[in-house]
Amino acid sequence: MSIQNFEKPFTQQEGMPDEVIERAVEILKGGRLHRYNTLEGEVAEAALLEQEYAKYQEAKYCIACTSGGYAMQIALRSCGFKHGDKILANAYTLAPVPGAIHAAGGRPVFVEIKDNWHIDIDDLREKAKSSKAKFMMLSHMRGHIADMDAIMEICQEHDISLIEDCAHTMGAKWKGVRSGNFGRAACFSNQTYKHMNSGEGGFLTTNDDEVAARAIVMTGSYMLYQRHGTPPPEEVFQKVRLETPNMSGRMDNLRAAMLRGQLPYLDTNCRRWNERYQTLEAGLRKSKNIHLPERKQHEEYVGSSIQFQPISLDPKDIPTLVANCGKRGVEIKWFGDDEPKAFTSRYDSWHYIEDLPDLPKTSEVLSRTCDMRVPLTFNLDDCALIAEIICDEVDQLSDV
Where along the chain do its domains lie? Predict the structure, then answer.
């Protein structure tokens, strides 16, 4: 009996809770969308969101801004980065990460990855020493959290300021510590396909007073910085406020209201993603032609996407797999394509970067890396069917 096709869209997100819609309408009717447009004694939605997310993240400070990419730029600058400085970065990431490094004037030093998509610790150790870089942008790409003990040891040994890109790890932990609470600053995304959805938006979190003060001024606080939800002491602002540029990137109250309404559901949604991920994982493991690396037991991931490797196929046959799955309603991305497609690109696609390195291990791993979103609009039966379709298509191509 043939397997049925899949018919739900991979880009459909869940709708907003009713209380979010009601609050959004109130804000629209009131007209006070700008975070500093408040009445006497009123606390803006954006400031309330900062307080609530800082509490959730177990961080001292949270700064709400326009996007995760913008958060990365100001995180670098707030940590003391200067134009032309070198920045260590794992080569497996998405375009906004090198884009943020480039926009800040940085010189990326790309580090190889391993078969499990984690940064290669040995290559990181060698490049930390040889590059003398004082900054690192670690992307927890697609929710895969590397050995943070080893990474922090290297950063401490070489006096490297670590900034974590947590776009795919909001709600995740490593050995009980929330992703984002290892480095000097962390950056989160609230773009539509992330763990909370405001269309666009981002957070910067930190426990460092001066990093927080600089970031608040950079987002465009003017001299209204004390209206933030988690402001550092006044004396810290007095130190930095006149030497820190305003680089307008504030979050507005409408998006803040959307996110405030979703935050109470975040942990529940993380569990729902993992139920779907684990159903897909179990289904894909039924094919001897598909490999999924085992995840570390102490990595409390959020499975909002899944990656796998059709190990029986030559990389040149993977576009056929992608096309065949697409005909049956299953949308897969491939990181091995020579040309960027939609949101998917790899390090050698970013031609604006001078002296792109040759990274043979990363290229080899990405040549057989398939990637798929896991929307919460899918149920467990949907995920089982998707896995069955992928296995069927991989197995058929493997038998050719």
Answer: 18-262, 266-399
- Give me the residue label for tokens 């604006």: 352
pLDDT value of position 1? 47
Check: CB of residue 265 under 8 Å from CB of residue 15. Answer: no
What does the pLDDT look like over 163-189, one tens digit per residue? Answer: 999 999 999 999 999 999 999 999 999
Query: Into which CATH architecture does domain 18-262 fall?
Result: 3-Layer(aba) Sandwich (3.40)
Alpha-carbon torsion angle 265, 266, 269, 275, nearest 10? -140
Which CATH superfamily, name and number, covers 266-399? Aspartate Aminotransferase, domain 1 (3.90.1150.10)
Other beta carbons within 10 angstroms of residue 336's beta carbon come to: 18
Looking at residue 355, what is its pLDDT?
85
Task: For residue range 343-357, list pLDDT tens digits in order.
Answer: 899 999 999 998 889
Question: SS3 letters for the chain?
Answer: CCCCCCCCCCCCCCCCCHHHHHHHHHHHHHCCCCCCCCCCCCCCHHHHHHHHHHHHHCCCEEEEECCHHHHHHHHHHHCCCCCCCEEEEECCCCCHHHHHHHHCCCEEEEECECCCCCECHHHHHHHHHHHCCCEEEEECHHHCCCCHHHHHHHHHHCCCEEEEECCCCCCCEECCEECCCCCCEEEEECCCCCCCCCCCCEEEEECCHHHHHHHHHHHHCCCCHHHCCCCCCHHHHHHHCCCCCCCCCECCHHHHHHHHHHHHHHHHHHHHHHHHHHHHHHHHCCCCCCECCCCCCCEECCCCEEEEECCCCCHHHHHHHHHHHHHCCCCCEECCCCCCECCECCHHHCCCCCCCCCCHHHHHHHCCCEEEECCCCCCHHHHHHHHHHHHHHHHHHHHC
For the chain, how many residues are written?
400
45-55: b (≥16 Cβ within 10 Å) or e: bbbbbbebbbe
Integer Cα distance of 158 and 160 in angstroms: 6
